Amino acid sequence: MFCIILIFALFTCEVSFILKVVTGSCVALLASALAMDQPAEGTWRPPRDCDDYGAEFKHCKSLTNRFHHYYAYGTSPSCQQWKEDYHSCREWVKHKAPESKKALQTSEQKRVAEQSNFTPVWKLRQKPPTDWHMPLNQDKPQDS
Questions:
Q1: Sequence-ordered list of residues with C-beta below 8 angstroms from that of 41, at least 6 positions apart, any chain
Q2: Helix 2-12 and helix 25-34: axis angle, to 10°?
Q3: How far, in Å, CA of 45 to CA of 87, rounded?
Q4: Is the pLDDT of residue 24 over 50?
């Protein structure tokens, strides 16, 4: 159920945030959802609205993002892919060009594959702790 919600959110929200949340088997499910192998050519649509690609490009080249990226990584961010995706999306909407469709598919698949390389910060629990219902020891000072 969690994966289905993430797939829906992937097509409606910002991918960079959603993919940071995704772990484990959901990555494979998201990758297969992004494969976008639709049987009818006319029913396919881009995974995001074209304006979303434009907004990502605008954010990428903003002064605050450039400053943050330079501070964090020591380089200026490359915004070219967002620009190409925006133009490919517009080309698909206007002319239904198959090369635009293929460019968008490979770009989104590459983003998903890139995000799946990161390991989660902590392991997810399979079950709650055995003493979850016990009161916390707030009266005793903890040794640290």
A1: 96, 98
A2: 40
A3: 15
A4: no
Which residue's entry shows tokens 């159920």? 1
- Let me know: does 7 contact 33? Beta carbons within 8 Å: yes
* pLDDT per position as a tens digit, 27-72: 444 444 555 444 455 578 888 999 999 999 999 999 999 999 999 9
Backbone φ/ψ region at 62: left (φ over 0), alpha (ψ -120 to 50), beta: beta
Q: What is the DSSP string of the chain?
A: -HHHHHHHHHHHS-HHHHHHH--THHHHHHHHHHT---SSGGG---SS-HHHHHHHHHHHTSHHHHHHHHHHHSSPPP-HHHHHHHHHHHHHHHH--HHHHHHHHHHHHHHHHHHTTSPPSSPPPSS--TTTTSPP--SSPPP-
Which residue shows structure tokens 């990555």? 27
Beta carbons of 89 and 46 less than 8 angstroms apart: yes
Q: Would you say the pTM of this structure is higher than 0.70?
A: no
Nearest-angstrom CA–CA distance, 87 and 104? 10
Q: Return d(Cα 59, Cα 65) in angstroms, integer.
A: 7
